[in-house]
Amino acid sequence: MPVEPIPILPEELTLQYIAEGAANVIWRISLPQAAIPPSTLKEEYSKSTPPPSEIDPDVGVIDNSDNGNPQTALGYGEVLLRLRKCLPSSESNLLAYEYLSTVIMPLFPPGVMVGQTLVKLPQELVSRANDVLHSLEETNARPIHRRHLYLAGDPRPSEQQMEEKYAFLVEDMTPDISRGEFLIEFKAKWLTQSPNAPADWRRCRTCALRLKKHSEALRKGKTVEWRGLCPFDLVSQDQKRNANAVKRILKHPRNEDENLVTRVTKALINGPQLSILRELQASLDPNGILKADHTSKEFLTAMTLRDCTFFVKVSPTDIQARLGDFDVKSGDGGKSDYWVKLETELIEDGWYSGTEKGDFPWNAEGLQVVCKL
Ligand SMILES: [Zn+2]
């Protein structure tokens, strides 16, 4: 259980549907002007957080700063509300927060992760949100493949009943397109070599796996782009390699804008995320998949950190990078065996050493994929 008191959201919040994934629906929230208690008005923006936009008279604040984690002290104008769907396979928001707050958040200083805080739901809010989903369906405004699954925590009797007393407030990384902003998402993956890679390795874990997967796709007759981001380029001391990695992340046509490439490269290289991730991946899993205890918290955390996502909001004047998608990893359900099998194949079939059998495009002169630390 989180030790700090969990704030309760005001019942009178207005909700605006923004987007949804398989397990959650994201809402923009605001307080009606009259409902803002003056004593809670507060402005708290980090250096890298852009000033509030014009929609922002609603700076009612959930102030969690007592918990020593200022990144959770956010105003409604800067956060989105994430409500969980009735998906039996998903874990409760309380459990998800318990994992985040005890395992992941202590690893990072404020401002490195996408800010997230747990809030208690007022009684009627989920029912109102579900009513919005129903009316969006009636007007064909809800994506077809998302229909007929509603939010957990609605106390009204219905076919979908699942208890959920909590929700997340998440830092709003939505780009304002009218101000020339855009969002880049990418995974930096394995920023250090797998401790189990052979001594004569020529490829990093990420490039080795990418080529192996693409060889399987090629065998099935699929055309695939086999070139990709090498994480070692991102953390190298070589500016040209840094910029090449960023070009892969930006993709065409943005990667042709030299000024943009330079700005994003500087922001990522000078930012804290990459070096923290690299150090943690190395220190939490010194033995590698083949020798690690797959039930150890450290190893599983290293696997989570190898799969988290960078969210980079680029505006004409500012670049804001945050880490998110810290999913709990577990070796259960055959996953542990899968990790071992995959690592063994990467080693034995020559994906690390670049001696894999087969006539692949990356075996042609000048196209070899070779990674350097
Ligand atoms: Zn590589």
Summarize the structure.
By secondary structure, the chain is α+β, with helices and mostly antiparallel strands. The protein is built from nine helices and ten strands. It folds into two domains: 14-172, Phosphorylase Kinase, domain 1; 182-363, no CATH class.
Helix content: 25-40%
Spatial strand sequence of the major β-sheet? 1-2-5-7-6
Distance between the termini: 41 Å
What is the 3D form? globular
- Gyration radius, rounded: 23 Å
Name the helix and strand elements from N-terminus to C-terminus, one letter apiece. Answer: EEEEEHEHEEHHHHHHEEH
**How many H/I helical runs?**
9
The total strand number stands at 10
Q: Which structural category do the helix and sheet elements fall into?
A: alpha+beta
Beta-strand percent range:
5-15%
**Biggest pleated-sheet summary:** 5 strands, antiparallel
Spans with pLDDT under 50 lasting ≥5 residues? 37-74
Ions, cofactors and other ligands present here are: zinc ion
- Total domains: 2
Describe the structure.
The structure is a single chain. By secondary structure, this protein is of the alpha+beta class. It has helices at 93-104, 125-138, 205-219, 231-234, 239-250, 258-270, 273-284, 297-305, 335-348; strands spanning 14-20, 24-30, 61-62, 74-75, 79-84, 116-120, 166-171, 182-186, 309-314, 319-324. The protein has two domains: 14-172, Phosphorylase Kinase, domain 1 (2-Layer Sandwich); 182-363, no CATH class. The chain is built from nine helices and ten strands. 33% of the residues are buried. The model is unreliable at 37-74 (pLDDT under 50). The protein binds zinc ion (ZN). The site of zinc ion (ZN) has 7 residues, from helix 3.
